[in-house]
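Purpose: get a first structural picture of the assembly so the mutagenesis plan has something to point at.
Setup: two entries, given in the order below. No constraints added.
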Amino acid sequence: FFFNDTATTEIYTEQIVGSVRCVQETGINAEYMGKSLYTQVKMTKGYNDQSFAGRVRQYVVTARKVPKNETDTQEMYSMRIFARSPIFAKSQFWAILKKQSKIKGSAGEVLSVVEVKEKNSRTVRTYGIILRYQSRTGIHNIYKEIRDVSLSGAVSQMYTQMSGNHRCNLKTIQIIKTHVVRKSDEYRKEANKQYRNSKISFPIAKSRRAPLKKYRTLFKAYNSYLSLIHI
Amino acid sequence: MCIRDRYQRRVHGEELKKQFTRKKFSQGKMATRNYLKIGRVCRINYGADYGKHVVVLDVIDSKRALVEGPNDKIPRQSINFNRLTPMRFVAKICRGVHTGILKKAIEKQGIQRDIENSNAYKRTQQTKLRAGLTDFERFRAQVLRFRLAKQARHQARVLSRGGAATKKLPQRKSDSHELGCRFEYIY
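Result (structure tokens, whole complex):
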């Protein structure tokens, strides 16, 4: 709806349920009006915040139950988590730890969250990822083989694939194991084996498009050059 | 009709057929493809690095390649095939070579020279040149173009009347290049 009158702020606050900004003062930031909660959070945090990126990073989260006093020692738990940001990593960590032990996030303290950066992102590797996911009908294990330059890149691709092919949410996926597939007989997907060929040679379709996003237009003065694209 | 006549007709007919069949697209120049392979030099045709050249080091999957362009300061990265236009030259390198070896190979095999001699590169240089011309330079270019066109028209008239083509007409070549005129004026 389009709201012009600033006098009747009471009615305005009643109607916007779930807005991030609670209208206590008379003014309201016009940019936040009419936007969904997700968009408002995104605007507040910044559009380029890593929490909103599709890319998943690898973290090692270490935590323990809060010790009762100075002499009390608690066992430390360390987990490798794939998440979009350290906040998500911690959240995932506690969700999984709670299932394995009696420790809750509220009773524990996180000792460190360290991002694991890929040592070598200059060579292409095939990553085998075993994961557990929840489908609409049940819980399954699945093996995915993904070619990428880094492990976090491969896991990001995996999440996209799972969501696209299996309609699977990021939250319902638990990664069991990741490894690098090295030998040709370890490959389980034929499609990935073909890239091992150093004599690989294939044509690519010519993409005829504007060189920059700003030059994109809806109408073009030329015919569609479908004949140039060899399938 | 004797066999010889029939043979002549058949051969003549085939010749006629050749003359009048339209060249299909697949036979034309447009569709000669430069296959993507390891070592292939490509031009980036989209994005921030538009117009720069890279060498394909490895193929990641059906959509991406691992590339690096040391001459254009493009770090090693994965790039979508859609962003690449393969060129006619291939660098002889092994799969996924180190940057140093790649640099050496490019130097030794004269890849940069090949790139600079390619029409696409020349075109980009010319476009840049034209974009940076001052108003006076643009006027000079116009004067030059008109003069060359006049000469060409004169030549065409002479030839159509059955006269002999004169030798290449004098033209201040340095002018045309610095003003971004067409790099070839065909007589």
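Helices of chain B lie at 3-20, 99-108, 111-117, 119-131, 135-160, 173-178.
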